[in-house]
Amino acid sequence: MRSWILFVYLGYLLSALAIYAQSNRLDQLIAEHPDEAEYYFLRGREYLLRDGNFVAAITDFSSAIERDGWYFEAYLFRAIAYFESGEKLEAKKDAFKARSIKEEDARLNAILGIIFMNERNYYRAADFFTRQIQLDPDNSQAYANRAWALLMIPGYSEMALQDYTEALNKDPQNISVFYNQTEPLLLLERYEEAEESLSQAIHLQPSNSRFYFKRALIRLRMQDYERALADNLQVLRLMNEEEIPMIIATLVNITDIYLRLHKWDLALYYSDITLELSLGESYAAYVNRGLALIGVWASNPDLDESHREELENEILQMFDLALQKGFPSAIYLKRRIPDAIKNRHQVDDSSF
């Protein structure tokens, strides 16, 4: 969640060089001038932006406020620190206190918008982001912020897309906008444009595995299986071994593609890898393995009776394990089982 600090605030702050130039002197200045609010604020800002030390930042901002109860910047930055540390109510109090001191600040309205986004009050969030735009009309991220809020309101996808377009007009290199605007494009079923937007993001940041992951999903919707597969394989190349959840999700997607291509052996291979990596906890892998086994069963009508029964039992076992691990729809699984297997094994509504 720290990314929103960087997007919203760094354009307004002193350069990093100016901050670092003061850093070695602030402790000394506070010791020499213990009643000076500004020095506590400056040190708190360093703790927040340079170190991510929210507790120390809050302590220093509080010291600044004790010495100057109308210190707008101290309330503003303490609101950020509180929000980042999870104390959302305190963040909201500080943001509104800052607003009572000075409403006409784009950063403050961005913070209030984010706070109301967190509360899922999307209309109120959009209002604050609109105010941010009014106060800072050249800020690309301000339009992206409002698009984020509008996207959460049913029926506002077109308006969200207009804001993303304006954000790119203000900053054609805004990578996050290329990535995020795929959401309204997908809702509007404009898949080719969504794919192109992800391709622009990849062009600007070719090492970002999330971009390939999402473009693969879009290409899957477009039934462009070969290129979706290529994107998923690129995701695996870019990720490190610590990103286990995303690796598992990518393996599930690869398995799904091979199922659609009726490549049962490869679907089984990747579902087995997924189960191994997830320590047997991925319900999607059990579902995919069951579907691949159904493909094997259907494409081999000449199997002898013992092998056929063994295969059918394994199919039912995979679906049963999927439900045990949290797969939400027994009805879906039942519908995927061929009638011949249902009849032979007396599969009914109570079977799962």
UniProtKB/TrEMBL annotation:
Q: Which PROSITE patterns match?
A: TPR (PS50005)
Q: Where is the signal peptide?
A: none
Keywords assigned by UniProt?
Answer: Repeat, TPR repeat
InterPro entries named in the record = TPR-like_helical_dom_sf, TPR_rpt, Ycf3
Q: Name one Pfam family in it.
A: TPR_16
Known SUPFAM superfamilies for this protein? TPR-like (SSF48452)
> What biological-process GO terms show up in the record?
receptor-mediated virion attachment to host cell
Q: Does the keyword Repeat apply?
A: yes
GO cellular component labels = cell outer membrane
For the keyword Endoplasmic reticulum, the answer is no
Show me the TPR repeat boundaries: 106-139, 175-208
Under the heading SMART domains, the entry gives: TPR
The name on file for this protein is: Tetratricopeptide repeat protein
Q: Which organism is it from?
A: Entomospira nematocerorum
